[in-house]
Amino acid sequence: MSISFSNLEKVLTYLPMLLQGLEVTVLLSLMTVLFGFVIAFTLALMLLSDVRPFRRLAKVRNGSPARLKRLEFISRFNPLRLIAGIYVQFVRCTPMLVQIFLIYYIVFGFIQLPKFTFFGFIQFERFFPGIVALSLNSGGYMSDVIRGGIEGVDQGQTEAARSLGMSKGQTMFHIIIPQAVKNILPAVANEFVTIIKESSVCYTIGVQDIMFNVKSIQSASFIIAEPLLMATFLYFCLCFPTSKIIQYFERRMRASDQR
Questions:
Q1: pLDDT tens across 14-34, in order?
Q2: 104 Cβ neighbours under 8 A, 6+ residues apart
Q3: In whole angstroms, what is the distance from residue 105 CA to residue 212 CA?
């Protein structure tokens, strides 16, 4: 397979299509990070929750040692933590492509989405399932990042807030989370770069991103290599500056912490 300048010139005639794909990729990534963060934050709170409906069983003192041990085990049961843990493990242990197919062909196979286009060329009935699938995947991965950021806040902050009469919820939302956000922002920003690259699999369900338009150009022009080079260039132009901006803000945040 050879690469020629004449083929590159032919591919450049499809530049408006590639730029449309670039817009879809950026919009898809932004929406994914936004909704993924909400999902991740919810999962993190579930993983950190102390909801134990059977905690009173731990106070039982009558019975054999084996029975008391079983009651102690049941008393530690936390349904929210169990559900969140199963969800996170499912996301981590299955390929994203499979998750996208499950969402598009099974979940939205039973849900009839309205068919319309916005921005003139984006098909909602394909774009929305792509956002849902990527957000669910991103939320599963970011949940541990957020949980780690919350747990990384000094325990003394919690004790000081409780000593001032603040409830557990007030302590979490007014003391812990504002400090944790500063710790997790770099990781959330890096997730945006990751999503830009991983969103390329959404072309398999017809989302008109960069890779979808590359496939269309290949089919129309019978040129294989040059459209892929253009896609590589566009993804690099998205990810490299974004990663450098993230590194800049990370350095600024570390400098402010050292003052």
A1: 889 999 999 999 999 999 999
A2: 126, 129, 130, 133, 205
A3: 18
